[in-house]
């Protein structure tokens, strides 16, 4: 487990607390308003604090969390990676730095395992790196953040919820009190 020791060295434990606060503070607003236009945040108008490499890695992580398979769309088609990036860019500098350190640790795992930067890995090798980071204690908050934002964004989009048979937003229609397995056809139309 030398990789985990290397990660612990590169990820400042004080920043882990910042990520815990971020995850806790984002849960309620994201569950209530998953399509909140994060690009309207005042910080989004400034130049991006994330590097092109950071953005590439976040897009690839997101695309591998919900992959496109058998003709079914994934996070890539829903632009979930861009949502993750936009959300991160609206955060405090301390949190952004912690995320960048976590991305550095992910790349360190990639380099130490395969001798290549994460974005240049094959899909199979990226999956191997993601299996490692998913169980790495030092990256748990980072992993939860990227995974949660990806999933929340994807399933809030028609491309995500229609694929699993959900009819879409319903709160403004009074809900679907008579929902059945054939939800779209068994709902009260208001």
Written description of the protein model:
By secondary structure, this protein is mainly α. It folds into 2 domains: 155 residues, no CATH class; 25 residues, no CATH class. It is 59% helix and 0% strand. The protein has 9 helices and no strands. Helix 1 runs antiparallel to helix 6 and helix 3 packs across helix 5. The longest helix has 22 residues.
Distance between the amino and carboxyl termini:
58 Å
DSSP summary: helix tally? 9
Task: Please indicate the percent range of residues in DSSP E strands (runs of 2 or more).
Answer: under 5%
The whole-angstrom Rg is 18 Å
Described by strand count, sense and barrel closure, the largest sheet is: none
Tertiary shape = globular
How helix-rich are the residues, as a percent range? 55-70%
Average pLDDT score: 77
- Backbone structural class: mainly alpha
For the secondary structure, the number of strands is 0
List unreliable stretches of 5+ residues. Answer: 9-45, 186-190
Number of spatially distinct domains:
2
H/E series, N to C? HHHHHHHHH
């Amino acid at each position: 487990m030398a990789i985990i020791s290397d990660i612990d060295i590169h990820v400042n434990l004080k920043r882990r607390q910042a990520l815990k606060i971020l995850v806790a503070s984002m849960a309620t607003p994201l569950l209530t308003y998953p399509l909140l236009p994060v690009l309207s945040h005042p910080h989004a108008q400034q130049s991006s604090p994330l590097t092109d490499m950071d953005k590439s890695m976040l897009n690839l992580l997101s695309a591998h969390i919900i992959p496109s398979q058998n003709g079914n769309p994934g996070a890539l088609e829903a632009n979930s990676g861009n949502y993750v990036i936009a959300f991160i860019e609206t955060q405090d500098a301390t949190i952004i730095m912690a995320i960048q350190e976590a991305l550095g640790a992910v790349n360190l795992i990639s380099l130490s395992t395969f001798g290549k930067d994460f974005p240049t890995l094959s899909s199979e090798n990226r999956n191997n790196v993601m299996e490692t980071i998913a169980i790495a204690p030092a990256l748990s908050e980072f992993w939860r953040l990227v995974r949660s934002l990806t999933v929340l964004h994807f399933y809030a989009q028609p491309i995500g919820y229609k694929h699993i048979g959900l009819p879409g937003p319903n709160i403004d229609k009074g809900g679907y009190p008579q929902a059945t397995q054939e939800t779209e056809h068994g709902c009260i139309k208001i």
